[in-house]
Amino acid sequence: MTLHHFHLKAEWPGGRNSEGYISAGNLQTKISIPPEMDGPGIGTNPDEMLLGAAATCYIISLGAMFERAELPIAGMSMTSEGIVDVTDGIFTYEKIIHRPHVTLKQGATDKQIRLTEKLVEKAEKTCMISKAVKGNVELGLEPVIRIAE
């Protein structure tokens, strides 16, 4: 078994509407509560970071799967949405929806299209962050797969 350790340093001066700072490897940013939650909206926030972790894990996993399968990928992009419910002052991260857009090169076979569809689903189930939030946050997938013109 191999263990990988990741470290983060956080600074927070105190108070709900303060502005802090985090540093973890290449991630170095200011942090605060987002304006949607009546915060100052400076830098990033836990909601964006969870969404970012889920999205980057998914798209990197998907890209690796496409590469191993030697699929004729012409391009790939994605948008993701995080939905947070606030009921009676309690914040609950309800759902993350990934919307990958995959373009296969002209001449892609039906078999390659089916494999692309399968891997789009599999990447969500095998991504480390998806597995970490499973059972706590609903995960949705709305893929678009097309052939380049």
How much β-strand is present in the residues? 25-35%
Shape: elongated
User: Unreliable stretches, pLDDT < 50, 5 or more residues?
Assistant: none
Order of helices and strands: EEEHEEHHEE
Task: Give the tally of β-strands.
Answer: 7
Computed over alpha carbons, the radius of gyration is 18 Å
Helix count, per DSSP? 3
Describe the structure.
The protein has 149 residues and is an alpha/beta fold. The protein is 32% helix and 34% strand. The model has no long low-confidence stretch (mean pLDDT 96). α1 runs antiparallel to α2. Strands 4, 5, 6 and 7 form a four-stranded mixed beta sheet that branches. A three-stranded antiparallel beta sheet has the order 1-2-3, with no helix packed on it. The N and C termini lie far apart (46 Å).
How would you summarize this macromolecular structure in one to three sentences?
The protein is an alpha/beta fold. It is 32% helix and 34% strand.
Show the helix and strand layout.
Layout: E1 9-11, E2 20-24, E3 27-31, H1 46-69, E4 73-87, E5 90-104, H2 110-126, H3 128-133, E6 138-141, E7 144-147
Parallel strand pairs: 5-6, 5-7
Antiparallel strand pairs: 1-2, 2-3, 4-5
Helix pairs in contact: 1-2
